[in-house]
Amino acid sequence: MTSVTTQKMRTTYCGLVTEALMGQTVSLCGWVNRRRDHGGVIFVDLRDREGYVQVVCDPDRADMFKQAEGLRNEFCIQVKGVVRARPEGTANDNLKSGKIEVLCHELVVLNPSVTPPFQLDDDNLSETTRLMHRVLDLRRPYMQNNLMLRYKVTMEVRKFLDANGFIDIETPMLTKSTPEGARDYWCLRASMTACSSRCRSRRSCSSSS
With 90 as the cut, is the pLDDT of residue 39 above it? Predict the structure, then answer.
């Protein structure tokens, strides 16, 4: 495995690599959205929360290129390389990073992945499939946008309340039910005496259905 000689896991996000960084060395982390082998040169569409960037792996660096040959969709990787302009006629106007690419110098596989059960850009997934593979579902652009929107709305509400003197207190503090179907477990000290005649251990004291 090739090691990335940098103190930082990333210097910027994939979707934020633009012409402003032309000629600079960047360190990026993300998921492999696509891997394309074009006759000895491997192109990797690297994805993170901010978007995509194209990474170019050429065979001049043998160790790195061998790592790139084994990449598959949803591998989590770290790359270090130089930002350069894409060849004329290959720019992608749909991406912020569409006019540049990153020539990979070093590559590390942070976490490999089995073959995903579906492509993340597939918009025709059933709800059963989405819920069965919830972790992957939350990586899809549509769900990512929903999560970011929810975060922004929540932050604006909290800012307004804070500016108007409200204090955020969550109750109850000892336990909080969740909608995933897990059984709640909690046993207050005050209830220990009352339930001691019915149970032998604290684990059976209070468990909601």
Answer: no
**Gyration radius (Cα) of the chain, Å:** 24
- Report the CATH architecture of 14-111: Beta Barrel (2.40)
- Average pLDDT of every residue of the chain: 84
The predicted pLDDT at position 113 comes to 93
Domain boundaries, the chain: 14-111, 116-151
The pTM of the full predicted model, rounded to 2 decimals, is: 0.72
